[in-house]
Amino acid sequence: MPSASPAVPASPLADTVLGRLTELYPAAGDPFRAQEMVAYMKGVAPFLGIRTPERRALSRTVLDGTPRPDEDDCTAVALRCFALPEREYHYFAVDYLRRHVRSCSSGFLPVARHLVTTESWWDTVDHLAAHVVGGLVAADPALAARMDEWIDDDLWLARTALLHQLRFKDATDTERLFAYCLRRAGDTDFFLRKAIGWALREYAKTDPGEVRAFVAHHRARLAPLSVREALKNL
What pLDDT, on the 0 to 100 scale, is given for residue 2? Predict the structure, then answer.
């Protein structure tokens, strides 16, 4: 279930962006392609039917000449996009936040949480986890305490907690990473088992020996899928 929506702040920049976005995106849609996208994404949301390269080109037009946003602008753009039903608007918001996460303070985390828990599926959650939530935690390590709460929450918040350090490399908190993997190791859900393996596989690029040792020691607790993913490149 999504969290209660945070308030949408006033933002002339968001007014401009959403005005352009809701004019250009629908005009480029393809109803037949939209149905294919809905089927591929298991019906998580309706689609306009815009392929990724076309959507990104349209997004550049939408953002042409717009200034760098502040946190209120990011909040308004993201929440207003996620309030629209079609998935391409959600993708726009995720891309926008990936680009401008450094404009956001620790206070943006509740907004990120709302986005993670709104029409949740891997296509938005994984990017929010690695690039937005991860960026916020990297900038303010005190936010890791919130990840300690999310790992015990619903599927998508737990997946976010598992994946938020994907880009941390040497800065990875390995004690936290391994603890999270063990904490959710007994889950039968595919997305959590896959996330455990993915998080370990990514950290193995930094310290393969530590990941190999962790998997060897805890193989009996880890799902075969998690083990395969973790050791895929070792």
Answer: 52
Domain range for residue 206? 170-234
C-beta of residue 101 within 8 angstroms of C-beta of residue 93: no
Spatial neighbors of 208 by CB under 8 A, at least 6 apart, are 234
pLDDT at 3: 59
Domain shared by 131 and 199, yes or no: no
Stretches in the chain below the pLDDT threshold 70: 1-3
Distances (CA, A) of 70 to 12, 49, 73, 189: 11, 30, 5, 37
Residue 204's CB is within 10 A of a number of other CB atoms, namely 20
Last residue of a domain, one of 164, 190, 212: 164
- For Cα atoms 225, 132, 67, give the angle at the middle one, nearest 5 degrees: 150
Helix, strand or coil for residue 233? coil
Spatial distance between the Cα atoms of 202 and 199, rounded to a whole number of angstroms: 5
